[in-house]
Write a sequence for this structure.
């Protein structure tokens, strides 16, 4: 298992898409944060603004499913799916490795790549920018605790979401299909969030118990301990259930 993880880490470090994504994400978040910090892009009534971190307002975009989906699905398309086209997965199976271990190793490393590109880079970018531009005074005990809590919950959500993308990528086996399907999924979520959620009680109840709703809860400036527990539980349950389903499907797949 450890050797499989090491092999996946080696492939991730050599994956060009991963490094391109890191560069693109750093540039986009760096520019967005800079425009907010210099007051060119003004935003109000955000979770960051209400806690006293108006310099972080551009980080509101991390909540948007379309944004983090494009990052994670692109990584999946050119990190997970490429193994199907190159025959790497078939070679791993033929070498005597259990399919469940192969799937888990890929999921662990893929989740790590997702967290780096969708969570760590955006956060580190704004932290360094605020300090470099002379706004280090915004870091009080209250704001630091808020950031630790919000981004810890967000990290768990991204890991759970990575398991969903991994499942889709394993089923489609093609990068294009993976990206298209996940984009369609985000459009459906947008419709549910903006339209159907207010019309149907059952839809709202189901939606509020998914990681997609819990993203907004994670960055809420006033969240209770019960809500934090619920957020963690939903993220862990999603990861475990989807990972189990993905592993079972992968075991029965015909790998060419």
């Amino acid at each position: 298992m450890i050797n499989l993880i090491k092999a996946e880490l080696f492939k991730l470090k050599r994956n060009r898409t991963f490094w391109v994504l890191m560069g693109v994400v750093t540039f986009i978040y760096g520019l967005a944060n800079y425009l907010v910090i210099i007051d060119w892009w003004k935003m109000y009534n955000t979770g960051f603004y209400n806690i006293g971190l108006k310099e972080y307002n551009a980080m509101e975009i991390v909540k948007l499913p379309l944004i983090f989906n494009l990052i994670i699905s692109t990584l999946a398309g050119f990190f997970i799916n490429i193994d199907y086209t190159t025959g790497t997965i078939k070679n791993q199976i033929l070498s005597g490795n259990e399919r469940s271990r192969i799937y888990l190793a890929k999921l662990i490393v893929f989740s790590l790549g997702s967290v780096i590109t969708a969570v760590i880079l955006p956060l580190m970018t704004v932290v360094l920018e605020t300090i470099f531009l002379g706004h280090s005074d915004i870091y009080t005990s209250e704001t630091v605790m808020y950031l630790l809590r919000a981004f810890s919950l967000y990290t768990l959500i991204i890991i759970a979401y990575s398991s969903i993308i991994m499942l889709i990528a394993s089923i489609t086996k093609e990068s294009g299909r993976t990206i298209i399907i996940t984009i369609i999924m985000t459009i459906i979520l947008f419709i549910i969030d903006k339209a159907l959620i207010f019309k149907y009680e059952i839809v709202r109840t189901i939606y509020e118990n998914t990681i997609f709703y819990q993203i907004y809860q994670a960055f809420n400036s006033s969240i209770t301990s019960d809500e934090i527990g619920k957020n963690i539980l939903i993220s862990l349950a999603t990861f475990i259930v989807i990972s189990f389903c993905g592993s079972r499907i992968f075991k029965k797949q015909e790998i060419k």
User: Anything to note?
Assistant: Residues 193 and 207 are 8 Å apart (CA to CA). The chain is about 75% helix and 0% strand. The two ends are 23 Å apart (CA to CA). The first helix runs from residue 2 to 13.
